[in-house]
Amino acid sequence: MRFISVLIPSFFLISSVLAGRREHLSLSHDLAKKPTNAAPNRLADSNNTPNWAGAIWNQPNGTFWLVTGTFIVPDITGQMVNSTAYASVGIDGGTCADIMLHAGVRLTVNSTGPSYDAWYMWGNEFANLFDPSVDISPGDTIRLTVGTPGGNETSGYAMIQNLSTEKDSIRNFDSQRALCGQNAMWIAARLSGAPLANFGTVTFTEATAEAHNGQTYPPQGATITEIVGPGDQPLTSVSVDGDEVSIRHL
């Protein structure tokens, strides 16, 4: 498959039909206002949710049109069956959850072992798999990009590039509903009610969000969110340094 080498210009509720069943990811809309450059490593100063962790920008309507990030796929071999984790980048889904554009990799442990799938989402209901020829394995370097080029928030695209195998896939979308462009995010998440797979550390590098006014937003300064378990027990630790977001499973 031809590798896309063009230069791209410079959980909310997700329901996905993947592997033949409907799955639910849940993302809180009540976002904390404490930025990462205030206290980037203190859980007490973070916005905690049961299902997602990472960095998210909250800006006025119509701010963001492009979000990208690169990470190395972790190995989840030998873990509890039905445990899951997702790594994704996206536009909207936080303060604006009516419609969103996301792309990522799903990590799942099933009865036959671990599986790694690339998925995308446009809208607010269903996520779908990218071209299955874009195989994903532990250790692969994956670049994710979502965007709404041309200033038209009713159309967009999601792209995954496996830099290790030089294979890629892109999907284009159109809708009568427009993205808000309020949120840019780099996150790890789990299925609502499902065990969280131990993903070790997912680090998004070269993580940037582009605004319509030409400004580039690195994750530094965005809101940090952590996954917590029963009794507010922390399950992740998120840190941000410039254009890198590291999400560590505890």
From TrEMBL:
Keywords from the named record: Signal
GO molecular function, one term: glutamic-type endopeptidase activity
SUPFAM superfamilies the record matches: Concanavalin A-like lectins/glucanases (SSF49899)
UniProt KW Glycoprotein keyword: no
Superkingdom, natural source: Eukaryota
Annotated signal peptide: 1-19
Protein name: Peptidase A4 family-domain-containing protein
Taxonomic lineage: Eukaryota, Fungi, Dikarya, Basidiomycota, Agaricomycotina
